[in-house]
Design brief:
The structure is a single chain. By secondary structure, the chain is mostly helical. The chain contains nine helices and no strands. The chain has helices spanning about 55-60, 70-75, 80-95, 115-120, 135-140, 155-180, 185-210, 215-250, 270-279. Helix 3 runs antiparallel to helix 8, helix 6 packs antiparallel against helix 7 and helix 7 runs antiparallel to helix 8. Residues about 1-35 and about 35-45 have low confidence and may be disordered.
């Protein structure tokens, strides 16, 4: 076992969880080469664990960075928790949108808390679409009960809901740009999410046109096709998400089988790297 490099000692006990400042040729702190080629190289140092930049990116879905404290050692890697919550919501929703096994209802029955706003809009108890019913005759049929289904056929509701999906797509587009510094799988996740939200927004806008003019059958056809297309893109997102979830879990446990995620952290140089190259 290689001894810790003298410069790695931290007398003030303010230690780094992952120290990349003294990387040797193999990505480990003292330059020790064990010949194994294993990206997860661990050395007994002054309280630090050294891993390669590629492994760090796979575990935490971000380029390498210096983190003070031992929070991750205490609580573990939180990334899989958020990821699996996302997948357990999106996967059944994508199947619903594609109408598999007769499913439908825009996923109101299976949308989880990850998209609570999306689910709440379609759940009658919240009366999101019922609030758009302004006709007293239609409102009277509910006798005060929330969630008047007639609201789903009001053009204003469908147009308003379309804008919600557009801006969900916008934030995913920002994540898409940022993912160019992470890995290929993460890039595919956000690329397909942008496409999915775009299709769903188009579907609701076309539904608004359909309910505004019942004779507009072309808009109804487009809405149906866009809904299925959005579900297909979301299903691809789910597949990529399950793939990277498995990759993270295997890497977290130092499993002998590792699956690639397509590291992109070295493809686009960071601002600090560019600054160093100018010096």
């Amino acid at each position: 076992m290689a001894n810790a490099h003298p410069s790695q000692a931290h007398p003030d006990d303010t230690r780094l969880e992952k120290d990349f400042s003294h990387n040797g040729p193999n990505g480990n702190a003292s330059g020790y080469d064990d010949g194994s080629g294993d990206p997860l190289t661990r050395l007994r140092t002054a309280g630090s664990v050294n891993i390669s930049p590629e492994m760090f990116e796979k575990l935490y879905l971000s380029p390498e960075n210096r983190v003070k404290g031992e929070l991750r050692k205490t609580f573990g890697n939180p990334t899989p928790i958020a990821l699996v919550g996302f997948l357990l919501s999106l996967t059944p929703l994508s199947c619903d949108l594609m109408g598999w096994r007769g499913a439908g209802g825009s996923g109101a029955a299976s949308t989880g808390a990850f998209w609570l706003a999306f689910a709440a809009t379609l759940i009658p108890w919240f009366n999101a679409y019922g609030a758009y019913v302004t006709d007293p005759a239609l409102a009277a049929t509910q006798m005060g009960n929330p969630g008047n289904p007639a609201g789903l056929q009001v053009p204003a509701f469908n147009s308003s809901f379309g804008f919600f999906l557009i801006f969900m797509g916008l934030i995913c587009f920002v994540f898409l740009i940022c993912s160019l510094r992470t890995n290929i799988v993460f890039f595919v996740i956000f690329l397909t999410l942008v496409c999915a939200f775009g299709c769903l927004a188009g579907a609701y806008f076309n539904l608004a046109l359909t309910y505004e003019n019942a004779m507009n059958t072309a808009a109804a056809t487009r809405a149906s096709k866009l809904l299925v297309a959005g579900g297909a893109f979301a299903f691809i997102t789910s597949l990529a998400g399950w793939y990277i979830f498995v990759a993270i879990m295997l890497a977290s446990l130092d499993f002998p089988l590792q699956i690639p995620v397509g590291d992109l952290s070295t493809m686009i140089k960071g601002a600090s790297e560019r600054q160093k190259s100018k010096v």
